[in-house]
Design goal:
CATH architecture of the largest domain: 3-Layer(aba) Sandwich
Helix content: 40-55%
Largest sheet: 3 strands, parallel
Order of helices and strands: EHEHEHHHHEHEHHHHH
Strand order of the largest sheet: 1-2-3
Number of strands: 5
Distance between the termini: 27 Å
Strand content: 5-15%
Radius of gyration: 21 Å
Shape: globular
């Protein structure tokens, strides 16, 4: 707990392009959490190298993601926005927690199995112990709550198990984190296969709206969105394409599902797709403008990076030093 507020930790990977799904499902909902929590949002670049990265491209994407955090409305004065790689405590605690994690637990991690299948030529140790580093990310800040999607719940449960195991040996060292339960983020699906979640790693460029897509591209992608042979704009389980578009329009416009159905009653798919595209473009336009401003103000962004890395490092070191003492590492001579 810091300044009387509970701690909240989250982050996004510095790979790929942030999608509309990432924004509506997570980033948009982070903006006002600082009113209730002390929030730490990292640019997750240590995890990113479990897959081979172009170094210059990774640095560029990491900086762009940090600027997108700010452009999306996350105030760097009220939230701590930083690079994971700039706080060495992540990796240091990760190693210690590796020694408190069982092989059987890691063998059960479904994401390792999925990613191994996708990257069969590079099944490395980092990919295998990825959930332990994620546990270190969370526990390093004594996080009370963590906003996680369904695909990360298994990792959060492992984090809780590791923390409890450590506490059982050494006393009350780690806060046991809970999943953040707040306003549900929208689950945005692929525009080309609405049975799958919209993904920044989708090989089909028309399947995802990227947060930095220009207006014409956004509208074109929505016009190409998969629907069905029916013409009714209704929210139905057997109409996944239209249901996804209604979800997107509802969140982007602030209208309820019922209001959307009423607005487009009797209208065709073409009119609806155009309206969704224009509304999403309107929502993303201020983000584009703010991002462009930040891109031209290197000194301001560099200042945020430096100040927030120092803040994150200070908080992280409090936990790390306590853990190091508990496991028996020699005290540092200052």
């Amino acid at each position: 707990m810091l300044d009387g507020k509970k701690m909240l930790f989250s982050g996004m990977q510095a790979t790929g392009n942030i999608t509309l799904g990432n924004y509506l499902g997570a980033l948009k909902n982070w903006v006002n959490l600082c009113d209730e929590y002390e929030c730490f949002y990292c640019v997750v670049d240590l995890h990113s190298i479990t897959v081979r990265q172009n170094p210059a491209e990774l640095r560029k994407r990491a900086r762009n993601l940090l600027m997108l955090y700010i452009a999306a409305g996350i105030d760097p004065e009220k939230n701590c926005l930083y690079y994971q790689s700039h706080v060495s405590g992540h990796a240091e605690l990760g190693w210690i927690l590796n020694c408190f994690t069982y092989m059987g637990e890691l063998n059960r991690m479904t994401q390792f199995k999925d990613k191994s299948a996708k990257h069969a030529d590079n099944i490395n140790g980092g990919l295998y112990t990825y959930p332990v580093l994620m546990a270190a990310d969370i526990l390093l800040f004594q996080s009370d709550v963590v906003p996680v999607g369904a695909d990360q719940m298994q990792h959060l449960e492992l984090t809780r198990d590791i923390a409890q195991r450590f506490n059982n040996v050494y006393g009350d060292v780690f806060t046991i984190p809970e999943a953040y339960v707040g306003k549900a983020g929208a689950r945005i699906m692929s525009l080309q296969d609405p049975t799958k979640k919209m993904s920044k790693s989708d090989e089909n460029p028309n399947a995802s709206i990227y947060i930095m897509d220009d207006r014409d591209t956004i509208i074109r992608k929505f016009k190409r969105a998969v629907t069905d042979s029916d013409t009714r704009i209704i929210y139905s389980e057997d109409k996944p394409g239209i249901r996804n578009l209604i979800d997107i329009y509802s969140v982007a416009s602030g209208k309820t599902i019922e209001e959307v159905e009423k607005e487009f009653d009797g209208k065709g798919y073409g009119d609806f797709k155009l309206a969704v595209g224009e509304t999403v473009a309107d929502v993303l336009e201020p983000i584009h403008k703010r991002f462009d401003e930040l891109s031209k103000d290197k000194a301001y962004v560099d200042g945020i990076i430096k100040a927030n890395a120092e803040k994150a490092g200070y908080i992280a070191n409090k936990t790390l030093r306590k853990v190091q003492k508990k496991v028996g590492f020699p005290e540092r001579i200052r």
